[in-house]
Design brief:
Strand order of the largest sheet: 1-8-5-4-2-3
Number of helices: 15
Distance between the termini: 36 Å
CATH architecture of the largest domain: Up-down Bundle
Strand content: 5-15%
Helix content: 40-55%
Shape: globular
CATH topology of the largest domain: Dehydroquinate synthase-like, alpha domain
Largest sheet: 6 strands, parallel
Length: about 400
């Protein structure tokens, strides 16, 4: 196991109706003037936004509002949020929504105290200072409610880029599982794929003797295999929703990734799909992740066999371990298909003829990237080709 520091300061406020307490937690963490940041109309129609406002008012917290966050959140709204927060004297950002809203809130939080362009932080600069952020989570998927990460799309060129810093970890996150019960099945499935991908990016590692985090990863994956079909069949299943919501947080706080080398190529490769086609991130991952696995599995066949046997219950073929590894990858792709997700370019709405553009936007040039297997531009192109033509 590698040496590591682990810092996870977020207070998780979990359970039924806990959104009614968010004002108390804003006050606890020093907020006096809040930027209330959210997405479309669902938070208004459901009454969630009114409940959040009532909680802020009850606790004497002033606020201003900025809605309009869309999936694959845009830099243009971030700039607007930074200007509004400065003009209003905001000292706390409260995100009401899913990963896109939280990521946009983090970007605003970095930009307010920064003299330069906030996009610097998505171009290699690391944030050292940010306004505090709190969240009221409505979608179990990105894990942004407990992580120090954020992903934003720059509209000029449609560049989707990420950043990370511990100063971006939310001070608190309100997690009321019933808020996810109105999600359409497809959004629920996309969230499940994102959660599983966050685990797999950590699970496939070259670091040896990491049994504790291996087992934690496998526990989260097996939970998703059990609970996702339950909520697809019964959207009002609170217990299944609760397990999935906490699985999403555990998957991306990095508690399952400490002490081990990680990969993250699949996320980078997918980001170009969702930037170009504006598809759901989880749907793109459902197409890319198994394709990446098929491309790299020979690098460590036994780790893929471990996934196949421990997570998906495949039988071990000791005479030909590669058969077991491929069976596990097939089982993963079949699961994604069974919950209604795309498994190839056609089903996603992507075009194979765009692969050169996707590779160009990925931006490797003559270099290589990744932790588990270092990929070249041609490797990335081949992964896209596998994804384009995939079938069960």
């Amino acid at each position: 196991m590698n040496d590591f520091n682990f810092y996870s300061p977020t207070e998780f406020v979990f359970g039924r109706g806990r959104e009614n307490e968010c004002g108390k937690y804003v006050r606890k963490y020093g907020g006096t003037k809040v930027l209330l940041h959210y997405g479309g109309q669902s938070a208004k129609r459901s009454g969630l936004l009114d409940r959040v406002k009532a909680s802020l008012e009850k606790n004497g917290i002033a606020y201003c509002e900025l809605g309009g966050v869309q999936p694959n959140p845009r830099d243009t709204l971030v700039y607007k949020g930074i200007s509004l927060a400065r003009a209003e004297g905001v000292d706390f950002i409260l995100a009401v929504g899913g990963g896109s809203v939280i990521d946009s809130s983090k970007a605003i939080a970095m930009g307010v105290p920064y003299d330069g362009d906030f996009w610097d932080f998505y171009s290699g600069k690391r944030a050292e200072k940010a306004l505090p952020v709190g969240t009221v989570l409505t979608i179990a998927a990105a894990g942004s409610e407990g992580s120090g990460d954020s992903v934003i799309t720059k509209e000029d060129g449609m560049l989707k880029r990420g950043t990370g810093s511990d100063v971006l970890r939310p001070r608190f996150s309100v997690m009321a599982p019933e808020l996810t019960q109105t999600l359409p099945p497809f959004q629920t499935a996309c969230g499940a794929a994102d959660i599983m991908a966050h685990v797999f990016e950590r699970y496939f590692t070259n670091t040896r003797e990491v049994e504790i985090t291996d087992r934690l990863c496998e526990a989260v994956l097996m939970t998703m295999l059990k609970e996702t079909p339950r909520v697809i069949a019964d959207p009002d299943n609170y217990e299944a929703r609760a397990n999935i919501m906490w699985a999403g947080t555990v998957a991306h706080t990095n508690v399952v990734g400490v002490g081990r080398e990680q990969d993250w190529n699949s996320h980078g490769i997918e980001h170009e799909l969702s930037a170009l086609y504006d598809c759901a991130h989880g749907a793109g991952l459902a197409v890319i992740m198994p394709a990446w696995m098929e491309f790299v599995y020979k690098h460590d066949v036994m780790r893929f066999c471990q996934m196949a046997t421990r997570v998906f219950g495949c039988s071990m073929d000791f005479a030909a371990p590669e058969n077991t590894a491929l069976a596990g990858i097939k089982a993963f792709r079949s699961f994604l298909h069974s919950i209604g997700l795309p498994i190839n370019f056609t089903e996603l709405g992507a075009k194979e003829e765009d692969i050169p553009l996707l590779v160009e936007k990925f931006g490797l040039g003559g270099g290589r990237t990744g932790g588990f297997v270092k990929l070249s531009s041609e490797d990335v192109a081949e992964i896209y080709r596998i994804a384009a033509r995939a079938s069960l």
